[in-house]
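Students often ask why we bother encoding 3D structure as a string. The short answer is that it lets us treat folding as translation between two languages. Here is a chain of 170 residues written in the first language.
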Amino acid sequence: MIRSVYIYLLTFCSITLGAQPYGTKTTTGSPIELIPELTIDGRFYPEFLLGEKFYNSQIEYRISDKILVEIQLFYSRYGIKERIRMPMLLKARISNNLYLVAGPEMEYDMGKEVDSSKPRLSLNSGVEYRRDDGFYINALFNYQLNNSNIGPQGNIGKSNMISVGSGIKF
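And here it is in the second language, the structure alphabet:
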């Protein structure tokens, strides 16, 4: 119950802290260089017909004008599959709107569908294109590092994956 309440609170809220663009000047004229942008975002789908649930939380921390760190948390339950997945991505801007993306990911099976004594450990790498109006598109390659029986995105067994995604940030 406490876990559900925590996930609801974490994913239901969307908070933006320190939202001034990097290098913005204060009323005194000094630049805000020590307050990088921190964004916390989340969404969830309420429990559906057969008990399916989905939660997604994301924390993005802008280290500098060209580098940011993104930590995501995904929880999903579909039938007997119950998974938690947590990628931690470093994004480096290489041109005006293009980022290189890389980082580790861990996925854990809570539904005991497979032998889940070992979480799935993998490495993500790819690119992301972001426009100033909030539109983005990305392509990632996910390479599994260990011999866990948990496959990516709900599959069973060792496997690698290519994913392509897009969205709009408001």
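Translate back mentally: The beta strands are 15-17, 38-45, 53-62, 67-78, 81-93, 98-109, 120-130, 135-144, 161-168. Keep this in mind for the problem set.
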